[in-house]
């Protein structure tokens, strides 16, 4: 992806050749000690840290002092105020919906309220990049329109939730998500419905700029990871050298130190290997630096070209409007055709226990649990390195039962960009909802990695061939998601529910954490046999 040269498309468009000679020499001080311009648009949770090994421990789930906003008797009035005809339409339909007793009329008003409320929320979403008062923030975040629609216990629960992202994880409520998209910190989610205005030449320039930005961001993430790797290697080398240079006086010869011990002699080989690894690291680091500087040069060239033509490409709708429509589709997907599509949070439909509400801290703790079982759940391989990249997670206020993966990664940065997952806030079982989203992510990442050979190679290829051999009907990916949920909830506890061949595919391509493998090995001959196959592959070439 990063070749250290100007992208051929960019070179052709600008009438320039490759220009690696024009790239400035690598300078670590400007790269790591001083913030680059691209960082000004990035928040801590949107920056990918390739050296992070897990999720932070959850030490605070609720505020000790409840937010008084939901107890305000004027909450409903404040929520609707300043939103024009859309708010009035919602109010009128809700009055009819609440007041009618006829089931048929109630069904009609319920559908009208659903459409009117989503249109109304579109107006609220446009204000998210600015400063939202707590009333509208809670409205956009949880779809709480009228506190009296909830029981006092439910109101107390939502009033105590932590509003700020104190954990700096890429888990977003809708108000935070629309603000990040609207201010340019996060690109719009991929969609086929966005039409670009202006000329085809301008469209081409903007597309190339997005591609160059993706290369630059990916190169910088790899740089930071390599630099951290070198720091750790140098630290270990210093420890070895320190131990190597420690000597003790000989008995009877206090002015002469003893020879190297057997342990110290072994360190010579270790130090030799460390030095070779440091040289390889330095080679990679130099390559990534050149990639970064070339991508940075491409970005500046394209920005200048776009500025000469009078600005960038404009989308028919604003970024927030486009993303709002995308989120609305995400909500529909989490619910499904037969689910409850009524959007307003109401005690009539809210049946979640506290442990099944998808608030941020709850989601992060479940993600950590999933990763403890499936340690490669959020990993992608690039340049022989397995990178842990947690996707963006959008918490959608819906009564859905399953999370979905909207994108496996950014189309402009396949190396280090985050994917996108949508999770329902009010599912029947939050653990299952998140498992479904992770399964969807795993499937799409594996499919993209295999590219044209997704029906032949890797996880998707092996699973597809089994599916065809069994002559199964239905959706292939949905069947995989169901099997993944079984794998994580049953097979991880040595409860054999999967087909033997599927179990083998998952054991190889969706491996459990080593402690779980060790536990399963002693529970059944089935798992013992799979464990032995691992050992056999490890001793053979091509594992």
The low-confidence runs, each spanning 5 or more residues with pLDDT under 50, are 16-23, 28-42, 193-200, 312-317
Strand content: 5-15%
Round the mean pLDDT to the nearest integer and report it.
85
Number of helices: 18
Helix and strand run:
HHHHHHHEHHEEHHHEEEEEHHHHHH
Q: How would you classify the helix and strand content by structural class?
A: mainly alpha
Q: For the CA atoms, what is the radius of gyration?
A: 28 Å
* Through-space gap between termini: 25 Å
| Helical content class | 40-55%
Sheet with the most strands? 4 strands, mixed
Topology, number of strands = 8
The order of strands across the largest sheet is 1-6-8-7
Give short descriptive properties of this protein.
543 residues; mainly alpha; two-stranded antiparallel ribbon; 8 strands; 53% helix
